[in-house]
Amino acid sequence: MAEGHDLCGHLTAAGHELRQRVYFEDTDFSGLVYHARYLHFFERGRSDYLRLLGVHHNELAADGLAFAVKTMALDFKRPARIDDILTIVTEPGEIGGARIRLRQAIARGETILVTAAVEVALVNAGGKPQRLPLAVRAALEAQSQPRGDGRSVSI
Question: Is 26 a catalytic residue?
Answer without folding.
Answer: no
